[in-house]
Amino acid sequence: MSNAEELYSLLVPLIEDRLIVPRACVAEVVRLSRTEHVPGAPDWLVGTLDWNGRTVPVVAFEAMLGRGLPDSSTRTRVVVFHATHSELRSAYYGILTQGFPQLVRVNRDVIKVDTSAGFNESAPVVTRVRMINEYPLIPDLERIEEQLVEAQDAPISV
Hints:
By secondary structure, this protein is mainly β. The chain is 11% helix and 41% strand.
């Protein structure tokens, strides 16, 4: 199998699940430090983080799925993603993770779509996949960015 048929990906640990994302989407993994509260923001937007002189919104993926906010610990990190949505004020956004992502190489021999799980239509999930003994979620990064744009443009309620 040629390298062109493989994709370097990251398994991003959450509380109950893992996400699998292309390595190229990720700018950096940083320790969670103090976040600034965003007035009127949805529950899943935990705040903004100062990263390399930029204000980066940070989301809790679990909360986007309606599972509530995860507790932060010494293992909590932020995976900083490159944004592709031109209307997102920051060119980056972060997703909370519970530890360091694991680098994996993915090809069509090791990954299969798992159709047993259903998700709400508004959930930012493309699908769940089976990858050897793992069942990670493929997040809909475009949908996450769209929700961030909606949140940044929403009027602030007092």
